[in-house]
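Trying the structure run again after the queue cleared.
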Amino acid sequence: MSGQDHIAWIAADWGTTNLRIWALDAANTTVLHKASARGMSTLAPDEFEAALLELIDECLSENRTTPVIICGMAGSRQGWREAPYRETPCAPPGVGNATIMEPVDPRLSVYILPGIKQTAPADVMRGEETQIAGFLSDHHSYTGLICLPGTHTKWVVLEEGIITRFRTCMTGEVFALLKNKSVLQHSLAQEGYCDTSFEAAVKEITRSPERLTSELFGIRASSLIAGQTPEAATGRLSGLLIGAELAAVASEFDLQNTAILGKDQLSRVYGAALGILGHQSALLDAESYTVKGLTLAYEAHLKETK
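Done. Tokens:
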């Protein structure tokens, strides 16, 4: 039996900057995991199939069609093909709502899962809804708040497994812009940050979030005339931005007990900030939930095709 014969289907998470794939067997066990920097932002619509084949060509059999279930930005307006949004309140969408592609390569059968939109206040997500579907496979009928940290962090309310409302915060992107493109770049550390400065900043800005922009320039001033170290400056920048985000979402959501989908450094920082303010949180493995969510979609596909 060849390697391709072991592979029943392909799961793909297509982000803005990266593409990740998992090749799985009939028991939904991962046989191969690969990634590339061929994210949505690097591709024209007619380049998506080739970018996908770069990662999965070795997984495809010549004598059958292999299903590929995709979540994320491949379904955006600038993606492979736009997959229409589902609207809140709704359960995480599945393969029955997917956009079915017609790839050139006959070995492929491609399904792009839709994202979710909220009309008031206007907001959208793509990819996170699949992580939430995976989370719900372990936490049926969950009611509570989920945080999905990232460049654009999502705060999502679920009521008995239904996504009722959510809010996106651009804190990660703002941090990157300030660190790399603003006057603050001359004050910040390339790696690491000071926990003490982070904690102080979170506490200060949640009490007076209206002071954010003046406190940001204070980072530069303290580096010039008060002996602030680069690590302290980075900790303060992170604390001010995440603290301001928490102050904003606290007016909309109950932060007392939050499930954080992520175990990376950024997720740990969000957990630390919540803890500083006296809130409970739990860090959960976002990648495994992505694969679980895509697996649920594949299993639904199997039922539909029987």
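DSSP finds nine helices and 14 strands in the chain. Worth checking whether this holds up in the mutant runs.
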